[in-house]
Design a protein that fits this description.
Elements (H helix, E strand, L loop, with lengths): L5 E2 L4 H27 L4 H24 L1 E4 L3 E6 L2 E6 L3 E8 L6 E7 L4 E5 L6 H15 L4 E2 L1 H7 L10 H4 L1
Parallel strand pairs: 5-8
Antiparallel strand pairs: 1-2, 2-3, 3-4, 5-6, 6-7
Helix pairs in contact: 1-2
Keywords: Membrane, Transmembrane, Transmembrane helix
């Protein structure tokens, strides 16, 4: 495996959001436990909201500490809940950018040759712009006919950005 060229860095806001999710989830789980001990009916609602609280805690842990993103010249690696997924870049044919609902940041959607959409959330990273440019650069090096949606091109510009400059492209 080659060394990653551009690696994600979490921002202070990411840690604060993760801690907020964890605190809210713990508070909800504690309230549900108290309601369960007091015999609140219906029991299924207490269980449902208690599970929601546990999920919020897990989501906060993932947002703050278990997620990651690496862009290499040949692969995109996305880590979620501590598990890495690797996506080869030569299969990607189109890229679009969307506004993420949670943090208002950028989210890239990569469309693979077989119609698979790969969601790349960038809101949680302090270096979201350089990550997006490195990814677009690597995609452009593999596919000169890469379809880049106009709103994304207006926001980031057109590749190449020079992140993955090769000896051939320098000549």
């Amino acid at each position: 495996m080659e060394a990653p060229a551009v690696v994600s860095k979490r921002s202070v806001q990411t840690y604060l959001m993760a801690l907020g999710l964890m605190v809210m989830g713990l508070a909800l789980a504690a309230l549900c436990l108290a309601a369960w001990l007091q015999g609140v009916e219906p029991r299924w609602s207490v269980i449902l909201f208690g599970l929601l609280g546990v999920y919020m805690v897990l989501l906060g842990i993932d947002e703050g500490w278990l997620s990651g993103l690496e862009v290499t010249p040949t692969h995109l690696r996305i880590r979620s809940f501590g598990r890495w997924e690797e996506h080869p870049l030569p299969r990607i044919e189109a890229v679009d950018g969307l506004r993420d609902l949670l943090g208002g940041g950028l989210q890239l959607v990569l469309i693979a040759a077989e119609g698979q959409a790969i969601r790349v959330p960038l809101r949680r990273y302090a270096n979201a712009g350089p990550l997006a440019q490195a990814l677009l650069d690597a995609l452009w090096l593999h596919n000169k006919d890469l379809i880049l949606m106009p709103r994304l091109a207006r926001r980031l510009g057109q590749p190449p950005f020079g992140v993955f400059a090769t000896k051939k492209s320098r000549r």
